[in-house]
Amino acid sequence: MSNFLLTFSxxxxxxxxxxxxxxxxxxxxxxxxxxxxxxxAHSIILRARCSYFKTGLSNEWARKEGQVTIFQKPNIxxxxxxxxxxxxxxxxxxxxxxxxxxxxxxxxxxxNEISDFVQDHLLEHESAWLKSNLVLLWSKIHPYSxxxxxxxxxxxxxxxxxxxxxxxxxxxxxDESLLVPFLKLDNLQMEEVELWDFMLKWxxxxxxxxGSDVCSWTKEDFRDMEATLRECIPLIDxxxxxxxxxxxxxxxxxxxxxxxxxxxxxxxxxxxxxxxxGVTLARRLQFDSCLxxxxxxxxxxxxxxxxxxRRYLHEEIPYRLQLLxxxxxxxxxxxxxxxxxxxxxxxxxxxxxxxxxxxxxxYSPTRWMTNEGYWNTEDSFLFSFGSRGAIEDARLSRVSKxxxxxxxxxxxxxxxxxxxxxxxxMRGKFxxxxxxxxxxxxxxxxxxxxxxxxxxxxEVFHVVRK
Length: 466
Fold this sequence. Notes:
Elements: H1 2-17, E1 24-30, E2 35-41, H2 43-49, H3 51-56, E3 63-65, E4 68-73, H4 78-86, H5 96-108, H6 112-125, H7 127-132, H8 134-141, H9 148-160, H10 163-166, H11 176-183, H12 192-206, H13 219-229, H14 243-250, H15 259-270, H16 294-304, E5 319-326, H17 327-330, H18 334-341, E6 347-353, E7 359-364, E8 372-375, E9 381-384, E10 395-398, E11 408-411, E12 415-419, E13 424-427, E14 436-437, E15 452-453, E16 455-465
Parallel strand pairs: 1-4
Antiparallel strand pairs: 1-2, 3-4, 5-16, 6-7, 6-16, 7-9, 8-11, 9-10, 11-12, 12-13, 13-14, 14-15
Helix pairs in contact: 4-5, 5-6
């Protein structure tokens, strides 16, 4: 029976291109670009093929010449139209531009099964391409309601790693209508001040005649930037930007922001109990760190639980990071470290190297003490997030199994956290040159090439199970 059906299906497909007794002529492609072809078809087959032609063949969408209905489709290439008409799709043999054009054409012609098939193929087989070309993909699929699967994947990627979008050069060329959906995301793992900085960068790219030094802006410059950012500014939660960051990053641009908003935020910073009218609670993820973002916390939790290549989503993290110490708030000396962090097991130490801005650190499942000696553990590790904080820069260095006896070093009150004999050592006042050092010894690799350094910020977190 299946053989008869296969033969019947083949015969029906031949009717789509058989020029005998045709009553529909479809002009696909653009003559001016040399990519043009005429297809001869039968209305009864086209109506059965998709609902688009049910309507199109019975209204004013097409013109008639005698008994022949003529459709013009300059926006659909002959190659794509041929795939749609024949219903034979081998996407593994097609390039990405053809696949995307097929997706757009399927939406226009209301052929949902092709749209679903193409999206499933891209999600399953082209995930690396999707992440590397997210702006191109989003620009292509954003207007089309049939592309929900891909749209949701794009939004999920941005929520999990915002720099995939905001850190790319393509971001600067996004149209406003394509950018706004990302600004509306509730679970974007990015601090509000970072988002504001990226909005300014985007606005300047749209106004290339305006210089980056706001002190040199004219009234006309402010007017043009305000017009560019008008739809974006209400989507920034200014009340969740710290007063220090507000002064440094927002105040110089206050003429871009509605006066009432500025007044409310200033009032809130002086009296936090008076929440700004008309302002909702934080939509985006808040995270108490000056050095890492929620995505990094997810990576650290994944390393703690030895998930391998898999990584926790933020909502899956079984821990919360409780801030014990921040250098710029509490001090950089070893005595302060022991006062605030001793007797806490399961801690993460994170620091930013002065001069290179590299973010490095370590995790210890054991307790810090002023005693001298070592903790034996195979679960400690060192890490680096590079100087950009990009996810692809994340590096892990576990303690060597044969050297686990020396995993955590306790070296009296003059030293702060020490991993291995030499792998990461902090002593004295950590913000003074030469007070910190990193040299591969008991861990699998070094997390920085800077041998001796000072830090300009460091934080210690207690890892608490939720």
